[in-house]
Amino acid sequence: MCCDLKRRFLLLYATQKGQAKAIAEEIWQQAGAHGLEADMHCMSEMDKYNLETEKDPVVIVISTTGTGDPPDTARKFVKKIEDRTLPPDHFAHLQYGLLGLGDSEYTFFCNGGKTVDRRLQELGAQHFYNTGLADDCVGLELVVDPWIDGLWLALKEAFLLQKEKEGMSSVVDAASNSLSAAPHIVHELNVSSKVQNLELEDEGMRSSDFLSQKLVDINLEASAGDTEPSLVHSVTPLSQSTLNIPALPPEFIEVQFQDTHGENPHPSSLISEGTTFEVPITKAVQLTREDAIKTALLLELDIADTVFDYQPGDAFCVMCPNNVSEVEELLHILGLSEKGEYFVSVKVKQGTKKKGAVHPQHIPERSTLKFILTWCLEIRAIPKKAFLRALVECTSNAGEKRRLQELCSRQGASDYTRFIRDSNVCLLDLLHAFPSCKPSLNLLIEHLPKLQARSYSVSSSNLYQPGKLCFVFNIVEFPACPARPVSRKGVCTGWLAELVAPLLHPNKNILDTKGGSPSTEKVSILARPSNTFHLPADPSVPFIMVGPGTGISPFIGFLQHRQKLREEHTDWEFGETWLFFGCRHRDRDYLFKQLRCFLENGTLTHLKVCFSRDSSTAEAAPPKYVQDIIRLYAKEVARVLLKEKGYFFVCGDKKHMADGVTDAVVDILSMAMEADRLEAMKMLAMLREARRYLQDVWS
Length: 699
Hints:
Rossmann fold; 23 helices; methionine biosynthesis; S-adenosyl-L-methionine; flavoprotein
């Protein structure tokens, strides 16, 4: 089709960790095959597009971050459209389709996309295509892939309608004829995609030839009794299917090795979204007994010599490196062990076909290879299908090549979810499982996301402990599984545990972390203040805290802060406070037994605890979980929420706790209101909207 007949649409993305951008790039790549031209921009590049004058359809891909906030790259855009002085027909000329990304493990699912969608509607914009909401909890591709498939017909209809409105019937005919090729293209992708998308350039043969083979090599390699699929082996019908796989992403990075002379940048220079502070660790305490199922640590940081400030309930981020042994192992597999200390120059490849290719902000223009793998790239990231597709071209064994194709294909979606996503497989695991796969360094830089700083809840009060910041975490453990034969610790929690090992004093559970040996170890932190998860502004308002396990962390800060306020303002009126805490064993992982100090001095009015794994000789079994205790105090909970307009805070695991607590609260509201469950759920939604039912949860 002639270039001048290609129809343009505006493609905007707003991303926090790169997923929305990757999906937008996929749309951009597919657009050309459908006779369309996507004018793609990051939402933050507001000087490059103007929705006020935009006449063409707009496609938006936007993620959600934090507890329902739009990503950083969308903040200016959202602030602009949230201007309440804008008239209701401000965007009456605009046609758009929106794809939101989120995680249903969190309360405000896809709220970034929903916020933009709702506001555009309020300002008169019209959908030309239904909004899609993709859930990272079950796999974004379950919504993303069919949404993109349907986008092309919706765009075609939007263009035809646009031309009819303009009264340009001749152009309508031309556009209709040119775009009528799209169904043929779709058919080709669905039925004969092996011709276009499975071309194996390194072998110099068309994939139609390759896929028409019976894949004897694969069948020979699989053992006779191997009837179950695995990471490296598929079974029928997948093993015999013609595959639809993504288009090969164009390479856009060029890496050149230099010498070994020079200095690496400081890791904090990689952070663009805030000020970092390098602070010493002054205390480390193991809060759990050695025989506890999980190991919980409390760390104290000295922030006295910085301007770092926080409120109880805030979070902050810790910059962490990848595991040293994993970096060395990766270098070894790539055949670059001797090159680790060499400086490399990273540039955008001249003549790349990648739209808007730029130098990745998180990669220094000059640093050592080891520095890039240690501080810049998330080598533990679960590989996306586009990465698997690129790895196909780096794999020499036919059986391994076919399996990688299956894992990134539409037909292999369930295998991808089971053996890659749910198994937390990373690049190292893939390289072990597919030994003939030898990716180039530029592919790693192109496809591995930025190493993210890890977020933790503050577990202290600057009023109670000036110049100190405490936080609590479990050392995350990833046990071995068939797809990942080695166990691993969390990237940040494993590193922190190793860092503070000399400071640890097992079997000491303390609240007041004064004293202790000073540490020369330092960590780089940056603020991540909460907009909502804070104590009520009015100290007379009662509140309830639910925090089992390390979910108690922010509430220690709440109570420390409240205690100090009570000491300094004896004439103030303070509302009652409830804390529901739970753990497995009273004598192994009761993290803060000194909570009773808060009870004794009146800071905490009610403390209710439960132990899920302790045996009991009582006739009536005690409650096992926090949601069970909450039900025992239904009248009190209802009184605080409904009559006294109090607050309800929940912190901890989403799936196994927070959802159960929400169900319990809905039942309590239903009984108290003498209403059905639907009405109780509406009341809970109102409490959320009023920011009186607040969650700080993780999956």
